[in-house]
User: Which sequence fits this backbone?
């Protein structure tokens, strides 16, 4: 199969880029894969795409390069196709509209994959007839504004499939978006086997990693560790990552006198060797659209104590088997969860082993298989019902605009 | 279509980068193993460690370690703890035959055996080597050699005093042991503190008010067998963190002095030695 990804910027750092890099590189073992990056702001990507993944860009924004296009007038006129309610609308413009349209009108692929809502809109509206149109949602439906949801509702019916990273988010799309004829399917993010050997569970360290942002609630983790220190002063906590909360967290550590026990380590890349130094991982977020760090830690053999926040943790952790889920926002529950594993070496070791095994389902090879079978199913469906259905459906989507109720009824009727 | 394919030049630049990416594994004895891709170059292959010129007088010190095939297209060099490496920052290069050495970049650093390292100190000294990424993204090894060594551990900051817990390696504290803070601005100015010890573990308590009288930095020294014996700089070296300063940070204590209010607090220097800073509050 020819598979073509469309991504905001393959040259940056971030969860979507990393997971796209993993998926594209794995699919490239069996398929012809290209990654088309709307923007290119540096010479080389940060993440290592497999050498046979073709990587190219549509708009060059490298200042000082011969191909620099950031000074073109179209670059400074507002986008018409990219939805204005999308978080990255300000970065898109008439030039990206044009380049993405040209790309999708001529794309030589069996499957085209969009990696964020605005690009999925381009995909739905502008892909030439033929390729399967698969939109990925790396965030969650409830993180989108009402305006964006309305914009997506109008065009997403022209996708063949929409993937979410969790079942919870897939249910939300099915339940509230009414996307007739669109296969909505949860496919988790992939995390490769780490290049370091797993943790042996003997180090008296709890490790956390993520942006130092309010949503991560590291303040709760630090407060919980105050109780851990009271009972087990021989254990310590490392928090990796950078962010705006750093000074506040630093002040909290000092206020609680935890400066011998809790350390803000700064960012680490790669992070796997840092997980391998710990014996327990902690996640105290109020929201995780997926929970990539949970899987990363598990793949390094760490049991994770995590809040049972929407959406991902509960779908990743098998509570009491390969980790511990605790209520959101509850300092004592977090401390209890940590102390349960700190005070029981056998349990910690058993959960660490289970975490290692259970997290294999997120291996890129396994996730790529799930995408492959999705593509095969969709191709089977379109071939069986015929291409006409797809194009009619799309025409109708364009004509009816917001008349999705009627369309939903029509499609429900057809499918049964 | 205005899209461009990746150019051959970019690809070869990327390949060259990959071939310089070096994985580093530390063992608990203080040895390091370096692994990198074999570029298939002619001639002898060496991993070259070059002490930064700014750290020494005159010619840079160099250590050459043979790079030998380790299977799977990889080359390996070993820096055992027995190889003497003077203190400083050692930049890492790959050297193939007579060609110009190429600066290495860090790949995967597996330093887990350093995290809670307790060296024996049996031969009277402690050697520490921590590989790290420089601010330009290159691979450098930070080395310390202390004979003996006083490792700083937990610090307790009270309203009136700073208590330092630590452990001595390479010698044992005697009943004559004491600690001393030396003012950097006024070398003649010192402040002595009693030391209590149990085996190799020692504790000393420094009076904030005494230090507050002299703004600037105070360096902390341990005299394990009193004035007649060696003096040992208190430092924090025994883990995987090459640069302690930004990570091991401590709250400041506000004090009133005759010259006005000052903030007093411990910190680790860029060499990971323990000092106390006294800052006049404007």
Assistant:
């Amino acid at each position: 199969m020819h598979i073509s990804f469309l991504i905001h910027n393959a040259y940056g750092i971030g969860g979507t880029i990393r997971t796209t890099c993993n998926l594209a590189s794995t699919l490239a073992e069996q398929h012809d894969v290209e990654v088309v990056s709307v923007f290119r702001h540096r010479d080389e990507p940060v993440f290592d795409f497999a050498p046979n993944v073709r990587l190219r860009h549509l708009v060059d924004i490298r200042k000082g390069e011969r191909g620099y296009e950031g000074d073109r007038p179209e670059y400074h006129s507002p986008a018409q196709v990219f939805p204005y309610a999308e978080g990255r609308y300000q970065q898109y413009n008439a030039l990206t509209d044009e380049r993405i349209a040209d790309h999708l009108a001529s794309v030589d692929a069996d499957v085209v994959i969009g990696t964020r809502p605005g690009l999925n809109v381009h995909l739905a509206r502008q892909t030439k007839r033929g390729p399967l149109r698969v939109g990925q949602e790396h965030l969650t439906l409830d993180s989108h504004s009402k305006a964006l949801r309305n914009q997506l509702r109008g065009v997403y019916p022209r996708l063949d499939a929409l993937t979410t990273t969790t079942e919870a988010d897939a249910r939300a799309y099915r339940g509230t978006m009414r996307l007739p004829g669109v296969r909505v399917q949860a496919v988790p993010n992939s995390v490769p086997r780490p290049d370091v050997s797993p943790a042996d569970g003997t180090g008296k360290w709890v490790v956390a990693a993520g942006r130092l942002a309010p949503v991560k609630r590291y303040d709760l983790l630090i407060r919980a560790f105050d109780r851990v220190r009271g009972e087990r002063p021989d254990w310590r906590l490392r928090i990796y990552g950078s962010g705006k909360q750093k000074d506040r967290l630093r002040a909290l550590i000092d206020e609680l006198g935890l400066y011998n026990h809790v350390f803000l380590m700064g960012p680490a890349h790669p992070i796997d060797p840092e997980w391998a130094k710990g014996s327990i991982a902690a996640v105290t977020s109020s929201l995780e659209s997926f929970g990539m760090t949970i899987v990363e830690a598990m793949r390094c053999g760490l049991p994770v104590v995590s809040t049972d926040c929407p959406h991902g943790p509960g779908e990743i952790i098998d509570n009491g088997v390969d980790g511990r889920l605790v209520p959101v926002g509850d300092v004592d529950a977090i401390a209890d969860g940590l102390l349960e594993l700190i005070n029981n070496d056998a349990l910690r070791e058993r959960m660490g082993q289970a975490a290692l095994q259970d997290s294999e389902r997120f291996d890129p090879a396994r996730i790529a298989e799930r995408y492959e079978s999705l593509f095969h199913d969709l191709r089977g469906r379109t071939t069986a019902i015929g291409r006409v259905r797809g194009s009619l459906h799309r025409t109708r989507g364009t004509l009816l605009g917001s008349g999705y109720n009627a369309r939903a009824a029509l499609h429900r009727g057809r499918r049964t | 279509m205005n899209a461009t394919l990746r150019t051959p030049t970019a690809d070869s630049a990327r390949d060259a980068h990959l071939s310089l990416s070096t994985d580093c594994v530390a063992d608990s004895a203080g040895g390091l193993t370096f692994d990198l891709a074999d570029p298939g170059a002619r001639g002898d292959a060496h991993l070259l460690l070059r002490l930064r010129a700014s750290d020494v007088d005159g010619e840079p010190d160099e250590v050459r370690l043979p790079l030998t095939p380790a299977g799977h297209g990889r080359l390996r060099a070993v820096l055992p703890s027995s190889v003497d490496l003077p203190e400083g920052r050692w930049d890492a290069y790959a050297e193939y035959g007579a060609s110009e050495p190429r600066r290495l970049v860090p790949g995967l650093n597996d330093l887990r055996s350093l995290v809670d390292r307790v060296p024996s100190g049996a031969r009277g000294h402690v050697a520490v080597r921590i590989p790290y990424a420089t601010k330009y993204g290159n691979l450098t090894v930070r080395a310390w050699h202390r004979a003996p060594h006083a490792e700083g551990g937990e610090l307790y900051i009270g309203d009136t005093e700073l208590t330092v817990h630590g452990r001595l390696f390479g010698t044992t504290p005697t009943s004559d042991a004491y600690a001393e803070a030396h003012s950097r601005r006024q070398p003649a100015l010192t402040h002595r503190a009693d030391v209590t010890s149990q085996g190799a573990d020692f504790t000393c308590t420094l009076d904030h008010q005494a230090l507050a009288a002299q703004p600037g930095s105070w360096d902390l020294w341990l005299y394990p067998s009193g004035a007649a014996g060696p003096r040992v700089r208190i430092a924090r070296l025994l883990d995987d963190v090459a640069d302690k300063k930004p990570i091991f940070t401590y709250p400041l204590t506000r004090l009133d002095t005759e010259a006005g209010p000052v903030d007093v607090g411990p910190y680790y220097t860029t060499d990971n030695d323990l000092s106390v800073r006294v800052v006049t509050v404007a």
